[in-house]
Design goal:
Rossmann fold; 6-stranded parallel beta sheet; 38% helix; 14 helices
Length: 410
């Protein structure tokens, strides 16, 4: 029987839903789409409010079943302690999900090392984390001990968790290249879904940045959206201030105290300046900003070495695509997935240091003909990243996975 002959029981797993970032947008768009033909359960750990997610991402989740997984208990706390803070739930959640006998499991949870608990599995990777293929020292011994305990509890060799998935899908060629380097595994590239935020409204003197407010830290996997850097750059552009240009920041602020303090700090720094903040904006409010903005800024990864800390650079850049769809001209850092979206001088500008960002922005601010030309090109090139392209590609991949014979060893 073809996999398309009947509805399937599909599980989607993401433990980072409260962050409301690009990975969470992808998760919800995928859940909405698959729920039209299948029974879809979204597995999560923190409490969620579906209506708020629908408002933020313009999705219809009425057919998606939200399933909060149980809290972790002994002896799995021991495994989590040994494994480290990034993978505390893998074994615990695997044991819960294995009992459900899902037809397909899609893991979209960043840094997860949970084996596939279903008949078929897809690991949809934002960016690969270091899984310690060459472990040594005390950390390596602890991880090996944790793996041994997990194998006893799950009947699955923890070191083979990645092989339990039928397919790895990466959200950009940038991520896929690092999957090959870090995991020695081929990844299919399917770009994440970006909404069409057009048509453009009459453009105003607005420079826009969209990204969640996340405090920076020394952690290697930190994904700082660099609002502080962009604010510093704009403070230098007093010539643009005088001509009526404004900088607008939009993005979700987490419920943790550190995120709230970061947002408050930016508000204080911007006092008296032509800078505005739109915290936790709903979809239509965000769309209005995109449509009115003339220029879009993106700087994730600035000041960090892309070879040493590749995960700190933009894995793809949904917000850049959405800005382009509304005719905002992107002026973005020349690294990570941004290079797959913006072609310098064709549909926007790419920069490598602050001076270039200043120069390119000033050129756009004073030359409306240049803005118009790049804006038209940006709208056209954004079309290949729209939702309908994503769902068509993901349908093809899922169908191939479901139609493949099951591996009896998994």
């Amino acid at each position: 029987m073809s996999a398309r002959a009947r509805a399937k029981n599909i599980g989607i797993y993401n433990l980072h839903m409260p962050a409301r970032g690009g990975g969470e947008k992808l998760t919800l768009v995928l859940a909405e789409h698959l729920s039209r033909a299948h029974h879809v359960r979204l597995f999560h750990h923190a409490p969620l409010e579906p209506k708020g997610l629908e408002d933020a991402f313009a999705v219809d989740l009425r057919n998606v079943e939200f399933c909060k997984l149980d809290d972790i208990r002994l002896p799995l706390r021991v495994v989590a302690k040994l494994r480290g803070r990034h993978n505390p739930f893998s074994t615990h959640h695997y044991l819960q999900l294995k009992r459900l006998e899902l037809d397909l499991f899609i893991n979209i949870s960043h840094r997860s090392m949970m084996p596939n608990p279903a008949m078929k599995g897809i690991f949809l990777c934002m960016f690969p984390h270091d899984i310690g293929l060459n472990r040594n020292g005390l950390r390596g011994m602890r991880a090996s001990l944790a793996s041994s305990i997990e194998q006893v509890l799950t009947g699955t060799e923890a070191a083979q968790w990645l092989e339990s998935y039928s397919r790895v899908i990466a959200i950009s060629q940038y991520s896929a290249d690092w999957v090959q380097q870090l995991w020695q595994r081929h990844a299919e590239v399917i770009y994440p879904p970006a909404d069409d935020m057009g048509p453009p409204a009459p453009k105003e003197k607005i420079i826009l940045h969209v990204g969640r407010f996340t405090p920076s830290s020394a952690e290697a996997d930190q994904h700082d959206k660099a609002q502080g850097f962009l604010l510093s750059i704009f403070l230098e552009m007093k010539d643009l201030h005088a001509k009526g240009w404004e900088l607008h920041f939009a993005g979700n602020v987490g419920s943790d105290e550190s995120a709230k303090q970061l947002a408050a700090m930016f508000l204080k720094r911007a006092t008296g300046l032509p800078v505005k903040f739109h915290f936790n904006a709903r979809f239509e409010a965000l769309r209005d900003l995109y449509r009115r903005a003339a220029i879009y800024w993106h700087a994730t990864g600035v000041g960090t070495n892309a070879q040493r800390y590749p995960q700190r650079h933009e894995h793809f850049g949904i917000t850049t695509v959405e800005a382009m769809s509304a005719g905002a001209v992107p002026v973005v850092i020349n690294s990570g997935g941004q290079k797959e979206i913006v072609s310098d001088g064709v549909n926007g500008f790419c920069w490598s240091e602050g001076e270039s960002l200043l120069r390119q922005t000033r050129a756009l601010a004073k030359d409306s003909a240049l803005r118009d030309r790049l804006s038209r090109a940006a709208i056209e090139s954004s079309k290949k990243f729209r939702r309908q392209v994503f769902v068509a590609r993901i349908d093809e991949s899922i169908t191939r996975v479901l139609d493949e014979p099951a591996d009896p060893t998994c």
